[in-house]
């Protein structure tokens, strides 16, 4: 029997690699002789770098950059290798720090040649700011731009940028500033960092844009389709999650709209209503407008790089999951991407969640065979997060025991 285990992380609790390990551990108790293919996945958010670096035997690059509030933070990105690992359970990717002069040990191939994967959240993430200091009108994505610049200076020609988990609402202005674009007010003064100051933008000076930017292919890994502005846009939908009240959200929305107006006045295509333009506080918009970036489903990018479809061939069962299975899982989240891929090969899929919402049963109409929650009764959230690993193991073992007694088709 062949079982493919392809879960996303359980946010704030377990990495995707840890989730896959516990699921296998539980199933091995019941099916010790089965063939297990562990391929943790991600959808462009938390864990994307770790999953893709591990899957390709790549390397991580760590350096100090500007955090969302301006203070220095330590962040890392990945450079993909050429060895596609059959079982990337251990985080055995090597590391390189920012003082390295070259990456002579990095293997490249036609599939991953000179490819870096960067998460916005690593340098500009919401988790970097205490809840009482969250002011998305003042946060900057500049540090993410510094990660991109470091990759470009190392000769990277293809960058995959995961847009999940940002603390920012600056339309990508911070990233673009780090890459050389100058954002000027009517007095030719450079704007202060933060999305709120885009209301004062008068001149967009691209003459000093790093020439390496136009030599690089940018793919934006995204799982949302929100436009830049309006009630469904970056400021109103995601701003409150980052600390914005209603008034601040309105001000940010107006500032982003003004930013879009200035860009279109330069003769560039107006991307404000493009699907995903509002991702990561408008980073999707900024990079699509001022670089050659294209937006793509994050889970599709990860499944392609990890060759998940190939690993699923002739599998008897696929197991996926994420921290919370609910109606939002349908919107480009990792479990549904895995399910879609498995269904194309006629393979049954079971999903395991840290929790399963009341509306999650709708997922059963989209290819999943069964949903299971690891939560055993009512406990405070901190306790559940801390005990996720043993709960996941126990749940997986019980699923395996149930699967064992189900009559198989002849």
UniProtKB/TrEMBL annotation:
Biased composition, class Low complexity, residue ranges: 91-107
Molecular-function annotations in GO: kinase activity
Entry-linked Gene3D superfamilies: Glycerate kinase, domain 1, Glycerate kinase, domain 2
Pfam family, one: Gly_kinase
UniProt region (Disordered), positions on chain: 90-109
Tree of life domain: Bacteria
Record's keyword terms, sorted: Kinase, Transferase
Matches recorded under InterPro entries: Glyc_kinase_flavodox-like_fold, Glycerate_kinase, Glycerate_kinase_RE-like, Glycerate_kinase_sf
NCBIfam families membership: glycerate kinase (TIGR00045)
Family statement drawn from the similarity comment of this UniProt entry: Belongs to the glycerate kinase type-1 family.
Protein name listed in UniProt: Glycerate kinase
Taxonomic lineage: Bacteria, Pseudomonadati, Pseudomonadota, Gammaproteobacteria, Alteromonadales
